[in-house]
Amino acid sequence: MKPKIAAQAGTFESSDVIVLIEPLPDKSGRKIEISSSVMQQFGESFTEIVIDLLDQFEMTDIHLIAKDKGALEPTIKARLETAIKRSLDMQEGTLKQQISDEKV
Amino acid sequence: MKKFKNRRTMLYIPGNNPAMIQQGGIYGADSILLDLEDAVALNQKDAARTLVRNMYKVTDFYDAEVCVRVNHLSTPFGLADLEEIVPLQPSAIRYPKTESPEEVIELLNIIERIEERHGLPHNKMTLHAMIETAMGVQNVFSIASKFSRIDAITIGGQDLTADMNIIPTPDGIGIDFARKRIIMAAKASHIDVIDTVFPDVNDEEGLRRETEYAKRIGFTGKAVINPRQIDIVHEVYTPTEEEIRKAYRIVREFRINSAAGIGVFAIDGKMIDAPIVARAEYLLRLANITVD
Question: Min CA distance, A15 vs chain B (Å)?
Fold first, then answer.
């Protein structure tokens, strides 16, 4: 699957991560940019988590930017999942109109 | 379904705040409420729901009872909340703005359908009904009495004053009738009843006064919105050493006298009978003390 729309999830608060997603042209593959206040210690596992989630959702032609402020693994996964679902326009039980208003 | 839990404090934690969720268990509140309702912006409901689901699975909340407040089924969020949260089987689901038994039946039907789909029992996770409208206050006796899964009711003071079109005052006079009616409904069904939040976290004396009043009129405990409020509420609700000693003596003497076939007896010249013994036993449960 490829993103239908640009989307974001998370915040810049401590212990959180903000994830931004935008669609890329067909056959572009994945472009992933991760920055973290704990990149030295956890950068590798962070990248693995991102790739795992993208694999689970079979995402391609995607530009993903993650800016981390020391989020734990369940938070990273939650924000990634939310951003991916929003970018696929498949989030349920929220006010979609307001989300698309604040698109990246 | 009813088993004794100490519910002196219930700490509200916004469901979309990972830092607060991961630290929620360290403050010593008896209960933690992960909130998907009023503490979450309308355009972040999906994010909060996913975050709570992920964090609940791995976070150590120590001895605290963990509840999740979902959105009302009349909103676009309620059903999606239940689909994510029911499979987790937290200690309880808190349902906001409960107004009638019919609403509870609708809620229970959905919960049980989800539980069946996941092979889960119908008697593990309980429900807390929040009463925060005039209609809810009107119907609180039937809400509290008809459902074995409801093991606590709570009053939502902010929403209730809004529903009544009155301005909240420090003496709480506008919701005093509602408080007492809700307490009586809970007592009639032998379930817990938890008071509303005290919104000014800087007014510690005001919190203590309101908690002392809540205890006097029968609330089991009080909701808190900041960890700073926990100790004050616990101080008010925790029995003193003198009270514990007295209760212990009453229960012990009662057992000795009962064994000898005596129902009413005296300690220090004061008559001790069944209601006094029941009160002493409750106080010892609060203090987590057993009589040998």
Answer: 5
